[in-house]
Amino acid sequence: MDLSSGHKTKKVVHVVQHLRPGGLECLVLDFLRYAPAHWDVRIISLEGEAEQAINDWPALQAFTNQITFLNKNGRGVSVKSIKQLINYLRSQNIDVVHSHHIGPLLYAGISAKLASLISTRITSIHTEHDAWHLNASKNRALQTILLKLTNPILVADAQAVQSTLSTLFAFTQPQTIYNGIDTRSFSLGDCHNARTTLGLSEFNKGDILIGSAGRLEPVKGHDVLIKAMHFTPTNYKLVIAGSGSQKETLQNLINHLNLQDRVTLLGRVDDMPAFYQSLDGFCLPSRREGFPLSALEAQSCGIPTVVTEVGASVQTLCPTSGLSCAPFRPIALAKILLRLKPLDKPCAIQTRQYIQHNFDVRSMVKQYQQLIKTGSSQ
After folding, report:
1. Which end of the chain is less enclosed by CB atoms within 10 A, N or C?
2. Residues 229 and 273 in one domain
3. H or E stretch including 363?
4. Are residues 219 and 138 in the same domain?
5. 280 assigned to some structural domain
6. What does the pLDDT look like over 53-82, one tens digit per residue?
């Protein structure tokens, strides 16, 4: 009990597969940032170790006292990791375990179930951030077993995901809580100042600067976007923020298409609000997605956004300024990019207000807090 406030302290731990820069990982950090003052909220990363993770993602430095790495190695189920989790949950008197995706569901769900047999009951919450991995029969079978065995409060991050879960797992009653972003950090800004901050001042006044952000992995479809740039006028320029295994492959594609003067891989960008503010338009060309945060972030900065029609991406769009395109189609995407123009001030404000009203992180966290209170009392 927090005697100073009269509130009971809740100890909540989020379990993720890894802590590398990405939408889900940023979202989990926001659970730490916006937790009630009397709650003790932490993260367990199944994979990785602290020093390397912080080196790769300096944003973790501020949360080192709240993050534990299990350094799980290799494929297959690690009994050692399950034992580590059980011991952690018991020794720290954890009240709530919140898993994200199927791997953490296995470890967190089983550990919470076993720990509850020995000590006080632990409430389990599981959030699905996309549904495309459930296309594989092996994953569907595993998730069916895990949901029946661990019986967590099941949450989907978008209506499309909730619909899939309800269809595949009819014995569950998934709820929908939309992902949210910090709309106070991602706000309207001055394009010129933002470009100066990021070292992008070389772009000419007549250029249309398109941006994309995300891990440089095949699933994100950056190759499709680069190919689309080949079919746009030469004043269309593209900057991509992010790192990943496809960096060399994408650079080779840029060189092959002679787009070196028009497409730039920026690598990791730490000042993402400035990145979005520097753009004339934002594009998310994913092959698969859940409910992408980057589209919300760009629009919160008043930037018109294009997404591919995969997962719940279209549900992130402001109805008055957002555009969408079928995936895998560079020429069709190029035609959509030609429709992207910087928004005038009223339209930029309207786009931002749509995100503020529907997808602010503070609203998301409050909904999960209420879910925890309700679930813990049952």
Report:
1. C
2. yes
3. helix 361-376
4. no
5. yes
6. 999 999 999 999 999 999 998 778 899 999
